Amino acid sequence: MKIAIGNDHAGTNYKFAIIKLLKDLGYQVVNFGTETTDSVDYPDYIHPVANAVEKGEVDFGIILCGSGNGAAITANKHQGVRAALCWSKELVELARQHNDANILSLPARFISEYQALEYVQTFLNTGFEGGRHQRRVEKIPVNRIEN
What we know:
This protein is of the alpha/beta class and about 150 residues long. It has a single domain, classed as Ribose 5-phosphate Isomerase B, Chain: A, CATH 3.40.1400. It contains six helices and five strands, in the order βαβαβαβαβαα. It has a five-stranded parallel β-sheet with strand order 2-1-3-5-4, with helices on both faces. The radius of gyration is 14 Å and the shape is globular.
């Protein structure tokens, strides 16, 4: 399985820990994030992750910024991307089970490294339930503008 990861300066340290975890678990990792803690613009590092998910080049994405909001908003501009901002294990589980989230957005300034690693593992180990949730997920994309 191949995972794309992207981050701004607020998520750099967590990104390194997440990459180590993913590689230890046998995942291939595509790193689109910044390597430093020098201030950068998060969209420059999040769009490549969302593009890779959108095009099917990777199975999932993980994105990090200070609040996780900017990263999630940016990623969700891409068709077929369902980026979920999560700050608890339960939210991660529900994002996968009910929303078939394919990108996990983490708020690096509001969770610990331990939590980030736990949430990544939960995200990758939780499946989509389908059923009534499938119908809802199918209604997410906007195909036309209605007046």
